[in-house]
Each structure stands twice: as structure tokens, then as C-alpha cells.
Amino acid sequence: MSTWTQAYESREDLKSYGDNGLALFALALHFRIDDIDGVAAESITDGHDDKKCDLVYINEEEEFAVLAQCYFSGKDRQEAPANKASDLNIALAWLLQRDLKEVPERINSSAKQIRDLIRQSKIKTLYVWYVHNLPISKNVRQELVTVQQTANTILKHDFNHSKVQVHAVEVGAEKITEWYSESLSPILVDEIFNIKVSDGGYEINGGEWASFCTTIQGKDLARAYKKHKLNVFSANVRDYLGSRSTDSNINNGIKTSAENSASDFWVFNNGVTILVHDYKYNEKVRNLEVRGMSIVNGAQTTGALGSLARLPTEDVRVQARFIKVRDGDADLIQNIIQYNNSQNKVEASDFRSTDKIQKRLKVEFSSIPDAEYEGGRRGSAESVIRRKPNLLPSYTVGQALMSFHGEPTIAYNQRSAIWTNDSYYSKIFNDSTKASHIVCAFSLMKCIVNKKIHLGKKETLSKNDAAQLEYLRYRGAIPLLCSAITECLESFLGRPIPDLFRVSFGNDVSPSSAETIWEPIVDICLALSNQLLPALIDGGLKSPTKVRECTSNFSQLIAATAQMNRPVYELFEKNVKPAF
Hints:
The protein has 580 residues and is α/β, with parallel strands linked by helices. A hairpin with a 4-residue loop joins strand 1 (55-59) and strand 2 (64-70).
């Protein structure tokens, strides 16, 4: 039994998704996703009218989408059925080409969103996966060649100005094994880089490591960032944080010096440290061949250079050291990462996972029952492979807080920017933010997610259930409903709320218990969710103006019906306590 199989079978939370559980596992491995239930609620489309689209995952921020067909065999077969791969041709036609009026409700919202994003050039890569647990085969590979041709033909005919790369991939046992192994390594970008070293360099050897120190051209860093984005920082405790046009912002300063003082860039900049699988230096041709790349120090330099409108000139040079660790010593690698990011003082705006607010919140969470919070860190390999049942994933916490505080469009469309944009971050993470308040906001979103999953699994639906599921299938529906519910808190509590950050269920309530407290409120609000549809139907969850109009109408309806629901609201009010 392979290691990934053991890891997959230990994930009890994935079993309820049937064959699609394997697709979710593959998605989590390849893209480092730790909030599987949230992704499942948004992306699983499997059903009698899914038109062969088992899963549609869209990541607007990182500009890619995944369409998957899934198959899991309980028997030891030599290959997966090729006809399941050919079904992806049907899926592509329905997702990208058929008249939206004919596309079933189950996949309609996904089809509309992905088409809009392709037309807006906000999807650069489309992955078409056939996910299964059997060996890869020639028959499936041939079918996927046709699938890729189908996708390219549709894109060329219906989206003629788009530049979308299509990757039709058989995600079989070998591929999942590869991704599982990669997930255990801090280096996600595993390709060969040939780097010009005009000024030569020198090597230093330690007991279990070796390092090559040299000067490289800034454009080599820029190219790596433009191609691989945040994956090039996979071993870095912080990602690139963007730049603002202010003198105090270091990233903007890096960009300015690269453009205006190129020949002096080397002396202005501290350089970069890059963790690699291996390197080979050819002194004769002054070429450094590097396999694998993760920047453990210098993310801001790399991101700033990679964000320039044009590649830096050859005059922009950067001091660099490339480190390889012999035998992949995990403890040594972790120490290299840690010490390379703790030598200098790091401000809160640069380093979320170690700022004073996140440190305080982690301490506060130690007193919350059955709750674990990582304080700004993305999911580790451990949390991706083996589910931590009590984990509140940092990115989901950010989305929940942003929704709770009235910004569902940011929560849905800019989940990474919540952590990198100073304005967004300070709106939800400040001295008023308490762990008990985070539990309150997170459990509301989780309650709605679980409600959608529950409705989606019911074999027969009442008219009301069907209407609620129809609403929840719209992309962005969950953060929008969260915001609408918090807009109505004064109606639920029967009193003014001068500060939303004070709303909590107290320090002795676990996230799962908090979900139970929210459930009667969510049931009432879901019954009126059709009031929110105008903010989702035309263009998706994009317009703050439409959101305000819909949530205002929704809150007025909740207020008008408050008397008939007073017993439910009074019980809810007894559970609400100030956050301290």
C-alpha cells in the first residue's frame, strides 16, 4: 500500500464525498488547500444533471480553474475506464459552450463565472483532470489528447481573444504519489533553471549542506515569479506582500530602485537566499544549473522585480546564495527557513504570522475548547494530508471575518489579499479582534457550508429545500449570506450593537458548539435568501452596491418578521456574550 493511499484512507472527512473525495484530496495536495469542506461546498457539482462535471474549482486570484471527472475503483485493475476520460469532452461543452439558458442549475453558476473570467483574461490556466486511483494508461492518455483538443477548439471559437493554457492530465496513482511526495517537501517548484553567472561565484560546504554564492540578474528572479507566482515562496514563512506608492513601503522602493538606479541595485539590496534540490556550476560557460527553487529570504525583492511592467535590465543584479541540503534533512531545512527569517526585525505589515495580533490570538485560542488556530500561516503538509479536526484554517478565518464585517465581495474574490493588503488586514485583525469573536464568525460560515453539503446529499428535496439549495449553488452565496445575517444581528438581539467585534458566544464555546447556536438563525435566513439573489445572478458577487441593496432589503424583511420568530431570537440572544 502506497503512502498516499494510507493518508487518503485515514481522511474520514473525505469518505462522505464518494469518488469525489479523491479529487478533493488531489486538489488539496497539488494546491496546498486545507479547508476541504469549504472547497467541496463551492466546487462539487456531482449529481444526476452535472453533465459530467464532477468538480469545478475556480481560483480567480491565482488565475486558474480545475474541471475534474472522478473515478475510484475498489478492485485491483490495470487501468481506469477510458470512457470516463472521454466524458470530459461533454463536460467542457456544457461548461464553456452551451447556451446558459440550457445549462442545468447544478453547474450554471460555475459555467457563468468561468466564462466571464476567461473573457476578462482572469483565467490563464485551465486544468482538465481525470482523477482515479489506478495506474495511468495509454488508452486514457489518448482520450485526454482529444479532450485537450476539444478545450482548445472551444476556447479559440468562443473566446478568441483569450490566452488560456489547457492542461489535460490523468491524475492516476503515479501522479498522486508524485504530488504527495512534493507536498512533504518545502520546494514546490521542481524544474530546471539555467542561470547566467557573469561574475563567477564560490562554494561553501557544511556537514549536511552546500551553498553556492554568486550574483545573478534580477530578470531571472522576475521570470521565476511571473511563471510560478507564490509557489516560488513555498518554503518561506511569508509571501510577497505587494507594493504601494509610498516612500515607506519597501517593495515600492525596490521597484523604484530597479527602474531608476539599476546599476546600484546590488548595493541597495540585501539579496536572496534560495533553497534548492540540487545545483551544478559550469565555470567554463559561467552557467549555474539549479533544480528546484524556493526563496526562503528575499520574497519581497523577488515579488517586486516580478511585478514590474517589464523585465529588469541586465544592470539589475542581485546577490544570491543557493543552498542544497544533503539527504533532505527535514530538521535542518526547517532551521534554515526559520533562521533566515528571524535575523532582522520584521514589522506587522510584513509578517502576519508573527505580528503581535496573531501571537495574541494564538494564545487566546489555547483557552477555546476544541479549537486550533495557526495565526496567519497557510496549511502545512500535515494539515493538508492529515486533517486536523479542530483546525480553523487561517484563510477561511480571514474570509469569515471579512464577511461578518460587511465585505463579502472581498471575502469571496480576494481571500489572499485579506492577508497581504494592509487596509483589508487591519479592518479585521486589530486590537478589538478576539479569539471568541473569530469562533463566532467562523462558525457562522461553517454552519452555512455544512447546510449546503447536507442539502446536496438529500435524495428528495421539499420545495423550500430546493429553493435554498438553488441559492447556495450560486458562487459567492455563502459569504453573502454571512454578511446578510450579521446585518440583521440587532433584530435578532433586540438591541443596538455599537461594536461588532464585541459579538461572541464566550471563551468556553467550541466552534462546533457555536455552529449549533447559529443553526436556527441560518435556517430562518436561508428561507428568505431569494432576497439576496440579485447580487449574485448578474455578474456574480462583484458589486458592493448591489450587495448593500440586497442586504438592506433582506434586513428589512427580517425586521418585519421578527415578532413571529421571537422565541428563536430570544434563545439565540441568551448565548451571545461580549468578546473579551
